[in-house]
Write a structure and sequence with these properties.
Order of helices and strands: HHEHEHEEHEHHHEE
CATH superfamily: Vaccinia Virus protein VP39
Number of domains: 1
Radius of gyration: 17 Å
Largest sheet: 7 strands, mixed
Oligomer: single chain
CATH architecture: 3-Layer(aba) Sandwich
CATH topology: Rossmann fold
Mean pLDDT: 92
Helix content: 40-55%
Shape: globular
CATH class: Alpha Beta
Strand content: 15-25%
Structural class: alpha/beta
Strand order of the largest sheet: 3-2-1-4-5-7-6
Number of helices: 8
């Protein structure tokens, strides 16, 4: 059983409330930090995730834990009729809505408040579901995945990006040093939030990655779950069908 890491172990708030508060606090600098700390590689990871769901020719896509909408924006390239992004952090959504309007995508993409564990949609509403670096933040991982399964149609496809831990020398050692020491320091300097970028490596280390996560996906109703490591295993692209 994975340890459920929270942003602040001294807080009386639930993990969900802490995560929402943390992302609301760093929303204004989130995009800058995201691209800086990943050295821009994150854009390629998102393209690969969208290429996976393109296979089922989705008309309607749900992006869970959409944040500022980067994955939803990437999904617009495959020309679905509509994309809905949900997130519990309203300030992140506000940043996303501005970006989407500036790109002229506000007729295609809608961002709304939504809890991954109680999605406000009917069964089978979506052809495909995406999620980038959000499942690690779910308070109850299986409850969130079961909800994603519920609102996706039979034959639909899910694509989930999540950080993982490289296994090969010397990437493993370099990555651990960067993740444990450099990333939290840079994150704190730019975001002014002391916990956000120490929570990140802690939550990644505790996440049930690879085969374990594929097993959880299948336990939650998905089938043919696969894990595809990207960029030496720094991140993993998980796919599955309903």
């Amino acid at each position: 059983m994975a340890v459920n890491v929270v942003p602040d172990s001294k807080s009386d708030l639930s993990k969900k409330a802490q995560v929402a508060d943390m992302f609301n606090n760093i929303a204004a600098r989130y995009d800058f930090l995201n691209h800086l700390l990943s050295m821009g590689i994150d854009k390629g990871w998102r393209r690969k995730a969208i290429a996976e769901v393109k296979e089922v020719n989705p008309n309607v896509i749900l992006d869970v834990a959409t944040g500022t909408g980067d994955l939803a924006i990437a999904a617009s390239k495959i020309k679905p009729q509509h994309i809905v992004g949900v997130d519990i952090a309203e300030q992140m959504l506000e940043v996303g809505r501005k970006k989407i309007k500036e790109k002229g995508l506000d007729k295609v993409i809608t961002l709304q408040s939504g809890d991954s564990e109680a999605l406000p949609f009917v069964e089978g509403a979506f052809d495909a579901i995406t999620c980038a670096y959000g499942v690690r933040n779910f308070e109850h991982l299986e409850a969130g995945l079961q909800e994603m399964n519920r609102v996706m149609r039979a034959g639909g496809k899910v694509a989930i990006l999540e950080f993982s831990q490289p296994q090969k020398f010397p990437i493993k050692q370099i990555y651990k040093f960067y993740f444990k020491y450099i990333l939290p320091l840079l994150g704190k300097m730019v975001s002014k939030h002391s916990r956000a970028y120490t929570y990140l490596p802690e939550s990644v280390m505790a996440f049930p990655e690879g085969k374990k996560f594929c097993e959880i996906l299948e336990r939650c109703g998905f089938k043919d779950a696969k894990a595809r490591p990207l960029t030496f295993g720094i991140t993993t692209l998980y796919t599955a069908y309903k």
